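Homework-ish question, so no full write-ups if that breaks the rules, but can someone show me the predicted structure for this set?
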Amino acid sequence: MEKPLTKYILPDKDPLDFAAYSKEGGYAGVDKALKQMAPDEVTNLVKDSTLQGRGGAGFPTGMKWSLTLKNPGGSGLKYLITNADEMEPGAFKDRYLLEGNPHQLISGMIIAAYAIQAQKAYIFLRWAYKKAEVILKKAIDEAYKAGYLGNNILGTGYSLDMYLHSSAGRYICGEETALINSLEGKRGLPRSKPPFPGTSGLFGQPTVVNNVETLSWISHIVENGADWFKKLSLTGEGGTKIYGVSGRVKKPGLWELPMGTPLREVLMDYAGGMQDGYELRGIIPGGGSTDFMTPDHLDVPLDFKGTVSAGSRLGTGTMIILDDKTCPVAFIKNLISFFSAESCGWCTPCREGLPWTDKILQAFEEGRGKMEYLDTLSFHTRYMGPGNTFCAHAPGAMEPLQSGLKYFRDDFIRHIHEKSCPWR
Amino acid sequence: MLSPHEKEEIQKEIALYPYAQAACIDALKVVQEHRGWISDEAIRDVAEELSMSVTEVDSIATFYTRLYRKPVGRNVILICDSVSCMVMGYETVYKRISDILSIRFGETTPDGRFTLLPISCLGDCDHAPSLMINNDLYHDIAPEQVQTLLDRYK
Ligand SMILES: Cc1cc2nc3c(=O)[nH]c(=O)nc-3n(C[C@H](O)[C@H](O)[C@H](O)COP(=O)(O)O)c2cc1C
Ligand code: SF4
Ligand code: FES
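A: Not a homework solution, just the prediction itself:
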């Protein structure tokens, strides 16, 4: 099984430095793209590959880039940003890529920036990723020294500067327009769309924001072609995917597997199944803002379409397991408390609705729940659902709640009847 | 007053952006790096340095959770209280730390040695429960290890 993204990542070992990664052919994609391909050829190749963004929403990457290519921008400046904010509870894949193979990301960024003709590229890094910060700084320096960044890269006339920006810590800064505001030194509030960043992004210029895992693919695709990428997967959606599992499984961890690997295989073969004495009750497939799946969904292929058919989303592909010794209400309450605390406060439904939802769940936990509260909770999932808030933060928060109300309704009702949490 | 050293570092950050205000968060970080936290006076000085209003700088400083507007101890303990760490029992780790230091979340020990704060997911969920002390990440924490861990920080 090919594992392009994680091939050179060795647990507890330092990542390959520039020289070692180049020796393995790691920068060959950059040479090829910059010397032999026109920018729109690179974009078309990425389009042909069918690569979909790995940051959660799954937007086709090539299409995103081509929107920017159509926008020369007022001053001609353009920006590429790597979204390395990764703050979603249960998500931990980007850290692995950043710490394990920084040059894979940097080489991908150089090609992506060339494709959209950006002159500046930023890595927007989560503040807590201290180890990644040190590793990335060193790797960027090495790339400059080797002539892959800076003026007139490889003598091609193309120039690119790359900066590392460590965030000051807010989940909402992962949302691409909030990220742009934060990079401009402002409060990280989302912007209204349109205009989309592809038209007007960082400092008002056309900007592409892509996830770490997405950009880590680019040099591989340029080197090996679109068909190679498509064939890596088990389903129609190309590539491999970094899946992760946390919770009461025997071997929590991360694995790069073909896109569309069935849930059962990830959970049983790789994560080793449940720890002794624990039963599987639910799976949040892709970070805290995705709907629960259940043991009935074990045969679902984990790709964008498959997870939707199971009423959920692939999201980040890093799963959180709910076991039978953990209270589902407390599990959902934990997520809602997070989203409530991280609301940027810009729009009323989210600013007011999330704390309200949190309080109702607290009432259930303390045995003060009432039957009519179940309706209030459903009401909230609708009123903070897609289209009713300024950004996707609140709708994301509602996903585990709405599916939790469906699958774990009896547990909510037990809290009401027993006037306490049955798990405490 | 910003020290010459702080000023110099802030000017370096400003040089990376098309205009000074864009370096606001970085400037606040510089101050925090030097003083541990960001006082009202520091907000005023940064505002002056970047030609911004005091309210504007304050609204930014208060938005970000890792910019401290109140003094913190010499060592800051951040315990992940997000979902995977909850499932794997962060609460017992928290309780042990809280008992040993006699402080709760949001508090600082009277000798200024530790501040204890909750933090959302540290991106280390496969090794839950996880916590950070200053810039050091610790994971797969069992309550029994807590004392030894704390002893490393004076
Ligand atoms: C509240 C919120 C938080 C987000 N956090 C992240 C994040 O931490 N990392 C990320 O890559 N995308 C995050 N996203 C998605 C980004 O807005 C954006 O879609 C993504 O970075 C695009 O990259 P991709 O096309 O490569 O997937 C978040 C979205 C929302 C609404
Ligand atoms: S939905 Fe929440 S996070 Fe998004 S803009 Fe509204 S208040 Fe801010
Ligand atoms: S939930 Fe604690 S590190 Fe992710």
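Now go work out the reasoning yourself. Hint: The CA atoms of residues 40 and 100 of chain B lie 33 Å apart.
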